[in-house]
Each structure stands twice: as C-alpha cells, then as structure tokens.
Design brief:
2 copies of one chain form a homodimer.
Chain A lengths: L4 H8 L6 H12 L4 E2 H7 L5 H13 L3 E4 L7 E4 L12 E6 L5 E8 L10 E12 L1 H5 L2
Parallel strand pairs in A: 4-6
Antiparallel strand pairs in A: 1-3, 2-3, 4-5
The structure holds a DNA duplex.
Chain lengths: 140, 140
DNA sequence: CTTGTTTTTGCAATTCGGTTGCAGAAACGG
DNA sequence: CCGTTTCTGCAACCGAATTGCAAAAACAAG
C-alpha cells in the first residue's frame, strides 16, 4: 500500500511525517482561504496550541507555507500550492478585508518585481492589499 | 507670535493640537527610520503607554503616519512626509532587516501598481521586503 | 476670569497571541 | 527489544496591545 499523499508532501519538503504533522497538513488543506493558529486549534482540537505553533514554524521554514502579517493581530498562513511558490518571482499577492477580517490569496496576481536599491539583500517580499472584499462590498 | 510648526501640521490633519500630541509629533520627527510604540515610550518617557497608543491610532486615522507590520512582533510606524503620501500611487516600500530587526522606509521606491482582480476595493497597499540591510551585510 | 461641558490623559488591570522549559510519548536505528 | 533522538502536551510565562475609569486638560459661553 502506497503511503498517503500528505506523507509524500511532507517528505518532499524534508519534514519527517509524524501523525500530528499529517493531521495538520490535512486540516490546512481544508481551509479555502488563509488560516491562523487559532483556526487550526479549533479545527484540530485534539492537538495542543504549542504543537501547532511549532508545526507552523517548521512548515514555514521548509517552505511548505507562506506567512502573512495582515495587521489583524493574528498571523495568517496559507499552503504553498506548488514547489516554486516560495521563489520571489512567483510570490503572490494577499488581500485583507477590513470589514470581515478575512485574508485571501490572490493566487493569480504575482508580486511585481521592481528595482530594489543597491546594498539590500532581498530574501522575501510581502505584498498585502487592504480594502473590502467582493462579499462585503455587495452587502450595502 | 505664530504657532509652532507641529501645531500647524496637526491642524492640517484635523487633529486638535494638545501638548501630548505636539510632543509626540516632535519626538517622531527625530527618528531616522521607523519607530514602535516602545521606542516612543523610551524617548518620551513622561507619557503613558496608553496615551501613546491612542495618539498613534489617531495619527494613523488622520493619515499623518503609516502603519507597518513587519512581522517582528511590534508594529512599526513612520511619518508621512507629504500630503499625498497616503495615496496609493505614492506609497513607498519598506524593508525589514532580519538580522538587526530595523525597518527602513525606501522613500524613493514606489509601490508598483498592478492589475487588481475585479470586485476588490483597494484602500491601502503594503509592500514589505525582508532580507539583510547594507550595514548587516557588510559585517561578516 | 469663572463655570459647565467635552475631550484627553494616566493609571491599573486585562486580554490575547505567541513562546518556552520540561517531562513523558513517539519515532527511529540498530 | 532496547537505547537514543525527536516530537508532543502541559503549564507557565511573556510582551505588545487594549480597555475602563477617574482625574486633568482643553474648550466654549457667560
């Protein structure tokens, strides 16, 4: 019997596939948008906050997920949907709705590359738009 | 006797110029880079944290300063240096050094405008680069 | 200037997300 | 199966942000 898909993904990212990690990866995939540590805590309520915390840090280190600071107070995360998602040219844009508080991945919108000033070494780019999402605009 | 420059700036932004606010604005101007609430607390040590907090919120509401989430745990701020600084086309890019933790305004680098997806209402854009700043690169 | 009203401020307490130390549990490698 | 390493849960802690409330400051009218 071939090992499950989640185990495979973890191995590809050089993460040892423990039960907790597989469960969390599975849980993360069920979110449509981005998710917070608290979201995972609710969804995978057998796990401890600290285990989730450490797993998030690990996944981020191994480029399995993006970290998004949207200014809402809670850090948001979303899965990288392809191997190249973490290279700068392929970074995508995030949108934070100031009304409902949700943060969306605009997967099709890539971060525009600009001329950076000399001397700075660029490792990561965050492009975050704030405003109102379609759903909140249509209400009223 | 003409009122001082700081009072004038506050009035221009429709903020009532109290002693606390003038002192804080003055203090903010002395920072070269971005600053945090804690920085202001150190620098203006006669004031209470909560007053600084509320003043920051007020200044941000009235577009007197930018709010920058750099993922360091503490929110950073920097003064808008002209009246138009808060319009999207004139937003500038910020750089967060992962070594020394400082966050810089790259005043000359404007946020590139891209095609946003239909339906979203854009109010604000944050373009944050993370990496190593010139000073930290030259050490080592 | 004095008085009454509104706004602002300082203090103290609290919330909340994030983070850590440690001991037991699970995974791993013979 | 056993010794070693890694991971996890628990409990405690931290620090930035946030709030309620009463006193102080700013303001407006007489």
């Amino acid at each position: 019997m071939s090992e499950n898909r989640f185990e495979e993904i973890l191995r590809q990212h050089e993460i040892r596939p423990t039960a907790v990690r597989i469960l969390l990866l599975e849980t993360m995939e069920r979110f449509e948008n981005t998710f917070s540590l608290a979201d995972l805590e609710t969804e995978a309520d057998t796990l401890d906050k600290s285990s989730i915390f450490r797993t998030l840090a690990l996944f981020a280190q191994h480029h399995l997920l993006h970290v998004i600071e949207d200014g809402s107070g809670a850090t948001k995360y979303c899965l990288c949907h392809n191997d190249h998602a973490c290279r700068i040219e392929e970074m995508h844009v995030h949108f934070h709705c100031e009304i409902c508080g949700k943060t969306f991945c605009l997967d099709n919108v890539h971060v525009p590359v600009i001329r950076y000033p000399e001397g700075y070494e660029v490792r990561e780019i965050n492009y975050l738009i704030k405003g109102r999402c379609p759903a909140c605009r249509s209400k009223r």
